[in-house]
Amino acid sequence: xxxxxxxxxxxxxxxxVVGQAVDRGITSLxxxxxxxxxxxxxxxxxxxNDLEPRYQRMTDAELREQTAxxxxxxxxxxxxxxxxxxxxxxxxxxxRRVLGMRHFDVQLMGGMVLHAGAIAEMVTGExxxxxxxxxxxxxxxxxxxxxxxxVNDYLAxxxxxxxxxxxxxxGLTVGAIQHDMGARERQQAYSCDITYGTNxxxxxxxxxxxxxxxxxxxxxxxxEYQQVQGRLHYAIIDEVDNILIDEARTPxxxxxxxxxxxxxxxxxxxxxxxxxxxxxFVVNEKDHTCHLTEEGIRKAEELAGVESFYTxxxxxxxxxxxxxxxAHHLYKRDxxxxxxxxxxxxVDEFTGRLMYGRQWSDGLHQAVEAKEGVPIKEETQTLATxxxxxxxxxxxxxxxxxxxxxxxxxxxxxIYKLEVVAIPTNKPLRRINHPDVIYRTAREKYKAIVDExxxxxxxDTVWYSRYEYEVGRIVEEDDERVVFVTREGDxxxxxxxxxxxxxxxxxxxxxxxxxxxxxxxxxxxxxxRGIPHQVxxxxxxxxxxxxxxxxxxxxxxxxxxxxxxRGTDIILGGNPEAKAWSILQHKYRSRLDVPRDEWDxxxxxxxxxxxxxxxxxxxxxxxxLHVIGTERHEARRIDNQLRGRAGRQGDPGSSRFYLSLEDxxxxxxAGDWVKNILTRLGMEEGQAIESPMVTRRIEAxxxxxxxxxxxxxxxxxxxxxxxxxxxxxVYGYRQSILExxxxxxxxxxxxxxxxxxxxxxxxxxxxxxETFAQWISKQLSVEFRARDFRGMDFPTAEAYAxxxxxxxxxxxxxxxxxxxxxxxxxxxxxxxxxxxKAVNTRWRxxxxxxxxxxxxxxxxxxxxxxxxxQSIRTIDLSEGAKYLDPDFGLKSAINWVRSKFGIELTVEExxxxxPSAIKDLVFEKALKAYQQKEIEFPVRAAFSxxxxxxxxxxxVYDREGIIRWAKGRLGVELTEEDLRTKTGQDIWNLLVxxxxxxxxxxxxxxxxxxxxxxxxxxxxxxxPRVKCDRNHPKLGEFCRWVAEHxxxxxxxxxVARMERRDLQWKFRDAFNDRYSPEMRQMERFLLLHTLxxxxxxxxxxxxxxxxxxxxxxxxxxxPKVEYKREGMRQFELMWESVGRRVTDLVFRMEQMDERFxxxxxxxxxxxxxxxxxxxxxxxxxxxxxxxxxxxxSQAGSxxxxxxxxxxxxxxxxxxxxxxxxxxxxxxxxxxxxA
Length: 1234
What we know:
There is one protein chain. The chain is of the alpha/beta class. It is built from 48 helices and 29 strands. α20 links the parallel β23 (about 535) and β24 (about 555-560). α2 (about 35-55) crosses α4, α28 (about 745-760) packs antiparallel against α34 (about 890-900) and α36 crosses α39. Residues about 25-30, about 1165-1180, about 1195-1210 and about 1230-1234 have low confidence and may be disordered.
């Protein structure tokens, strides 16, 4: 079979080669699609070049004015495409003046590709950072925000500081997001025209924003409660393959505490420290696992003080101890993680970067924390999550740039609809890519790598042919001969005619590994050889860019993972600017703060001292940077990225990969059988295979793995698509609330939906029969259907049900006997206990198994049937008569309406009405009841604020405060004399009457204002984004109306610039703040709190569903289909629960906790502070868990201790959040232990 598979592979590969040859032939005749695309861009490039003299003649001020002119042209109706040629020409000239860099023609092409929403594949060193300024400037003119996405904080800050002067010269603002920023700083950065940041920071800010309680710029709330990000419009993604392919499946998760006992991790750590390796546990470093042995389990049980790990209450111990063993024996400090600020920070295995905010799952992170003795975090539950893949699909337009994207072009198109365009280099590529060399074992491979590094670092090499060479030291040379001293000390004079090539020592070498561990191993081997080198690992992560930037110095040997230092150019001879910043970074906060004169002077000083340019020319003469790859990656583009480090911008360079048959990829390409064959054929230790054909075959194997990985990613995308659709619906609804949606209308819609859903059920003609069938099925332990009783009166139904149950009892008993006392089984195997329990449970009997054992099996059925039928005859079914009452549905509906809305109805009132008329009547009465709640709520809030208890516990009223509030809020003139003799109820009645008058007046004003606003858009259709005419005759009247009645200062020009939706929301917010602040605030918080709580519970449900849905495959069903079906069902249940909970609470305001109601109290507008106490108190009440999770998810922030404030809340007291539950069943569960 294996031989047939090999033959099939050879045949298929042959057809692939033939197909590629045919493709190359067609391309040579007609040109590739990529070449045709670039030719279409050439006229625009020429047009930009033609404009260059024009802009060069302009002064700085005139050039800067172009930005304002471009924006006016956009407002006049032109598009960005119309401005592209001129905007690119302006940006190019500004770059030449400010940065001293002029965009090449190929860079202009790259900018056009990015603006078109595609991916520009540009070779490393071709200036992608500079290319991004072109589309960033053009798209920033719209004022909708441009996000430039990088792979780490350093690059985000560096690129912002590097390109920032260009943007600022042109009149734009620029900012950068860093992981340790607070909410205010993030808001400022996102408010800029162009914002730099990492994919993680942009993604996490999106997650945090969808947990915050206020929209961006809503100054009624403190800044930390406001959203920071704003619209996701246009993203330019640097290293797009890394972000959209490698990290596509990475979930960005914000978690909250799951309330577990963290002391168990410390105990497990203590136990793990006392266990002996290979005796009590086994470590498998290859599979990255640790497991207890049988002896280890017994020892661990003894140390834990439990009888057995496999009894109730102890089942978690093996898992905890396994994690503790992993922490000690597989996870190494400064390799897999570092300790920073008393926290465990994970190190990216492939790049060596610190991953702030990430933590290992399933208790492993806590095990590492226990090992290191740092504070242990509680295990968490998901509060918010999204994959990077789905986050970037939220943008209106995305584009990307990288050195290697063409190999993944198919995936980019299928998932993101992104086309890949290869941009030619500015200068011809001079890099030599040597064929791979393959060794039998990894040990031989690494020895060969170290030998190669030592040869190139310490010795000159004379090559006599492609494979024959000699190492030593060149003493003297001329055009005819070379005087050479070998490593052994022999002196030789070699004629030039015999020499194929000479390699002199001192070429810089970059060694790319697949993991930090492999880097450390190679570093140790080089140390033993005495070869000085730099290694990028967790200890030096902060110097990543600095180390990589200087990897082009003469004689430098640098070891790093393949992905490390991406975005940092390796300049031959060294990078003086990188070295200058390494000196100044401790003095200045950013490069933008460094005075230009100081910067230029330091760069010049370093250049003169180090002679980097001269050294660069010397290194180029030696052959440039040499890249050594220690292993092929399963993705070809990762290998190409490593190769791309050498040969930037026309520099010479070379690369070679060293492989072994023990490498992961080589095991796919050629298993152990190839290794064994080569050994039998006489392949000696240290001998290598080197062939271009083998290299091509390996690349074919890589392509197969890439295809497999794509299928995996696509499958996971299908799973995540379920949550993505749900997330969009929830967050879209939530965002509309934050931005000013009419919460009263939303709640009215919920009331209508609740009425329709429930009354449709109660008023259905078969409702009584269905309820009776369900009830009697439980009573008689027999399945009945509603149609069995349709049209029956109770006596008839009762008789039918008893008769049917008696007949069914016979077959049920026969089945039970056959199941528990099978004739073919031995009598000792009969299960009398199960039979007795089943009979007793089903027919409410009290039989004993010892009594049944005395009865012969053949007589047992008759005995049990008689007992069961006797029980059926004696069951009282009179309670079921009410279900078959013709008015049962109406009575149920009346009871539900009374319980839900507090509305009293009678059967006579409803009997002659159609169901639709009943629903309309109930809705009308519910709205009236809700209106009364609106009238009473301001008074209820004021009462809660102005009442207290005296020393004896008696309620007292602050009459002066009530008088002051009534005058300012309701416009009622009261005196102390009016209130002195009145009881609390009298005061309540007086204020409710005044509130009703104020409410009616406000509603009249609302109608008047809304009609005036609607008149501005008369004849413009229903488009919410339409703008009114600047010369509309009623525009001035509207501005005067809102100024008089709402205190809102607006000009006709500002109104004309606003879209209809924004103006409606601004009007509504101002009106509600002026005339009904308490009720609208309560509605808003209630909607947000209920939606957030339901969504968090739903996320937990979906986590459980995802982990268990694979078991459905055993039932011959597709798990993905089941996940989608069940996931949507659970989501609809969650969505229904939101409406049910909200409507329950708004009609039970009188049962809400007084402190919550009091937090809604508002002073008069004149006395209102910027962030009112009502807002602050309500946020603290309803948003504490979200805000805590938001703050904890931002690296650099320290968890603050929870301080007890306010009066003590008893476990059985009503919860202050107003949910109607007891405190112990609601918010008490959400409190973190102090």
